[in-house]
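re: the backbone from monday

yeah here it is again, tokenized this time
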């Protein structure tokens, strides 16, 4: 305060008052920011914000500078993508196909004709997607499934280019970059197929439709009873094909019904079992094992319990399972391959030891 008086001494009183007000106004935002939530959190740093602010808009704002060739994309695809999405984007038993259903005429018109063909079996990604930014952004933030955000900027450009090449959208010698991605957008088969004539785009100027529930009026008298629709499985059909609740993937809104005997009845009838060995939970999460495997139900791959029951009786179970974990493979549990894992030999052995003991 003394320095402020020294700097303003000798000046007119009105000027001193104005300078004092300006100094107070400059300090006020910082004070308010500190007092708004005292003792809770802190302001994010620019570096932290940049790490999260990775989305790419349809106008390509947010797209990082870089490039990637179709040839490079094929290398990345075969090493990190094909195990889930197929060599040619046809996918396997779990994931929907990415490529197919588009024609050269669709590339010209920007509308996929087969989307209006009820007889065409299924809808691929390249049939539906309307913006290249959707592909680039999703690959960048979510792929590969076992190691999201591990692809470099060049690899994301390259894989996007290769995917579009498999769909006949980009030529074999194309190099996709931040400078020409808008040109690739003008060749996307369904670029003119997106509509805003629905209520999923809220906000002024973003939709041409009126929300269907905004004109409803509350019922005040003689109101109809709320309908209840229910179904059940007759006793003779229960458990005919195993417990349906164990046969659905644990993602999405649908769950299988419990069609087996109750857990209480099973527990009363079954003899006591020895306690199962503790799972190496931290290792399973660290190496993304739980992305494809669950404890007692099938996800993308078999459950840990199924693996233990099939291989736990081997004399060399721990060594065999450790090698399979690190090398990957296909054919033992179906046609969805497990890619080679990058965990250490000690980590693989710890997981394998637990699996070999689980069946006992």
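seq for it, each position gets an aa:
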């Amino acid at each position: 305060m003394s320095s402020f008086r020294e700097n303003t001494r000798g000046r007119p009183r009105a000027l001193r008052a104005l300078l004092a007000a300006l100094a107070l106004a400059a300090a006020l935002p910082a004070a308010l920011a500190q007092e708004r939530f005292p003792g809770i959190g802190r302001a994010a740093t620019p570096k932290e914000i940049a790490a999260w602010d990775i989305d790419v808009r349809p106008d390509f704002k947010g797209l990082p500078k870089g490039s990637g060739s179709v040839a490079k994309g094929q290398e990345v695809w075969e090493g990190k993508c094909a195990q889930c999405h197929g060599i040619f984007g046809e996918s396997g038993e779990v994931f929907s196909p990415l490529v197919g259903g588009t024609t050269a005429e669709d590339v010209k018109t920007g509308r996929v004709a087969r989307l209006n063909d009820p007889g065409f079996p299924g809808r691929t990604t390249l049939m539906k997607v309307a913006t290249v930014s959707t592909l680039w952004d999703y690959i960048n933030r979510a792929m590969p499934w076992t190691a999201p955000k591990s692809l470099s900027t060049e690899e994301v450009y390259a894989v996007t280019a290769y995917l579009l090449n498999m769909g006949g959208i980009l030529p074999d010698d194309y190099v996709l970059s931040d400078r020409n991605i808008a040109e690739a957008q003008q060749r996307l088969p369904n670029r003119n197929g997106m509509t805003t004539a629905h209520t999923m785009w809220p906000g002024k100027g973003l939709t041409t439709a009126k929300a269907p529930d905004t004109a409803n009026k509350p019922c005040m008298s003689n109101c109809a009873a709320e309908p209840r629709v229910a179904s059940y499985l007759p006793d003779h059909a229960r458990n005919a094909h195993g417990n349906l609740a164990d046969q659905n993937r644990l993602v999405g809104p649908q769950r299988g019904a419990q069609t087996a005997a109750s857990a209480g009845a099973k527990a009363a009838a079954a003899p006591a079992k020895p306690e199962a060995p503790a799972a190496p939970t931290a290792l399973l999460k660290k190496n993304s094992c739980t992305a494809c495997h669950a404890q007692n139900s099938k996800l993308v791959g078999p459950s840990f319990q199924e693996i233990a029951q099939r291989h736990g009786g081997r004399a060399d179970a721990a060594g065999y399972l450790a090698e399979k974990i690190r090398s990957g493979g296909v054919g033992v549990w179906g046609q969805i391959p497990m890619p080679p894992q990058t965990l250490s030999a000690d980590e693989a052995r710890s997981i394998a030891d637990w699996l070999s003991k689980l069946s006992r």
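The two ends are 78 Å apart (CA to CA). Confidence is low (pLDDT under 50) at residues 1-10, 262-269.
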